[in-house]
């Protein structure tokens, strides 16, 4: 069975019951995992605890928690507690987030994200193993203590959200999975080569790292609805490229869309949001998202899988209504079309 994940906006406009209903539908439909992000709204672990208490089989994944706002020991304790509560269903998704959130919201310096991620993973792995954590690093010096409530899973999976070359190498070296966003399927072989550089250091192959990108998806039920879904996707992409600093702008530029990205950034900077969204080319949209009727979406998802994606994680553009979310979950479920 093809594995597939689900990530839902956990901000305030999505109620608890709506989150539970989406997770339960995904659980019934055979989805692999439910991913909860956090920024400056709800925290991921509380949301996942709620989902764990209302589902049976779907795995519970942080997507992502950052390596600045909690100590590595606290992250290890919390993900282990979730694993115990869910009887072995937890996955830890880690990342560095960005300077704006880390410094502006959490009030801590955004220094050494790559080195800090390495140190966090080393400490978390040791803590989850039940061994004593004796660590003398740049950011943390720890001794003697061992976690007295280890997780159910012997090796709890750790995924890293990464896009840059050095972070991809770190992913290949230390992580069980890779969590990119806005992944251009044509670039997957190139990016896997960067993962392979790190994998070799650990005596592994790039294929040992699960590729689990977030894929913006929208299954339409009419031509009018298709146009609405496309508009939502374009607006969401424009926000990331034009309004989220340089990180995603540079990622799209490296993927061959430098001209479009520059125009999007300029339109966004001038306050013309509609123009920024309209500047996104059809090729840009098709390379990173899934859009169409049920069969078209299944065919597009198959194309991503053939390009090397192991676990696509469905996510939805801002403004997607509950009916469209349920429709997309059902259309792209593992059993659908069989």
Would you write up a description of this structure?
It is built from 13 helices and 13 strands. The protein starts with a strand and ends in a 7-residue tail after the last helix. It is an alpha/beta fold and 338 residues long. It is globular. The protein has helices at residues 16-28, 44-52, 72-85, 99-104, 113-129, 165-174, 188-201, 223-243, 247-269, 273-278, 282-288, 294-306, 322-331; strands at 5-7, 33-36, 59-62, 65-66, 90-95, 135-136, 141-142, 158-160, 177-178, 210-211, 214-219, 289-292, 313-315. Helix 3 crosses helix 5 (113-129), helix 5 packs parallel to helix 6 and helix 8 (223-243) packs across helix 9 (247-269). It has two domains: 5-217 and 289-331, TIM Barrel (Alpha-Beta Barrel); 222-288, no CATH class. Helix content is 48%, strand content 13%. The strands form two sheets. Strands 1, 2, 3, 4, 5, 8, 9, 10, 11, 12 and 13 form an eleven-stranded parallel sheet that branches. The protein has a two-stranded antiparallel ribbon with strand order 6-7.
Brief sketch in words of this structure:
The chain has 338 residues and is α/β, with parallel strands linked by helices. The chain contains 13 helices and 13 strands.
Low-confidence stretches: none
* Form type: globular
On the 0-100 scale, what is the average pLDDT? 96
Count of separate DSSP helical elements: 13
**Radius of gyration from CA coordinates:** 20 Å
CATH topology of the largest domain: TIM Barrel
Total DSSP E strands:
13
CATH class of the largest domain: Alpha Beta
Helical residue percent band: 40-55%
The succession of helices and strands, N to C, reads EHEHEEHEHHEEEHEHEEHHHHEHEH
Write out the CATH superfamily name of the largest domain.
Answer: Luciferase-like domain
The CATH architecture of the largest domain would be Alpha-Beta Barrel
- How many structural domains? 2
Largest sheet: 11 strands, parallel
What percentage of the residues does DSSP assign to strands (E)?
5-15%
């Amino acid at each position: 069975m093809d594995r597939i994940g689900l990530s839902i906006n956990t901000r305030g406009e999505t109620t608890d019951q709506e989150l539970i209903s989406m997770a339960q539908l995904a659980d019934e439909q055979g989805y692999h995992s439910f991913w909860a992000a956090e920024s400056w709204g709800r925290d991921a672990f509380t949301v996942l605890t709620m989902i764990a208490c209302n589902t049976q089989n779907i795995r519970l994944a942080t997507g992502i928690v950052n390596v600045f706002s909690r100590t590595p020991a606290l992250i290890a304790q919390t993900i282990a507690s979730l694993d115990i509560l869910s009887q072995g269903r937890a996955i830890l998704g880690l990342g560095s987030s960005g300077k704006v959130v880390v410094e502006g919201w959490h009030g801590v310096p955004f220094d050494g994200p790559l080195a800090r991620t390495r140190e966090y993973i080393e400490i978390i792995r040791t803590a989850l193993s039940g061994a004593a954590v004796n660590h003398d690093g740049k950011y943390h010096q720890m001794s003697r203590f061992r976690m007295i409530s280890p997780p159910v899973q012997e090796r709890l999976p750790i995924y890293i959200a990464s896009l840059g070359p050095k972070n991809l190498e770190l992913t290949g070296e230390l992580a069980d999975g890779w969590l990119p966003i806005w992944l251009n399927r044509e670039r997957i072989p190139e990016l896997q080569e960067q993962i392979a550089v790190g994998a070799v250091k650990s005596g592994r192959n790039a294929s040992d790292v699960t590729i689990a990108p977030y894929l913006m998806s929208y299954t339409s039920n009419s031509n009018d609805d298709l146009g609405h879904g496309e508009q939502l996707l374009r607006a969401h992409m424009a926000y990331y490229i034009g309004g989220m600093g340089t990180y995603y702008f540079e990622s799209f530029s490296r993927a061959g869309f430098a001209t479009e990205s520059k125009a999007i950034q300029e339109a966004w900077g001038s306050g013309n949001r509609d123009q920024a969204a309209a500047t996104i080319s059809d090729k840009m949209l098709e390379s990173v998202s899934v859009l169409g009727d049920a069969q078209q979406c299944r065919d597009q998802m198959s194309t991503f899988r053939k390009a090397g994606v192991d676990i696509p994680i469905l996510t939805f553009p801002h403004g997607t209504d509950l009916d469209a979310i349920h429709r997309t979950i059902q259309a792209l479920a593992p059993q659908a079309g069989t």
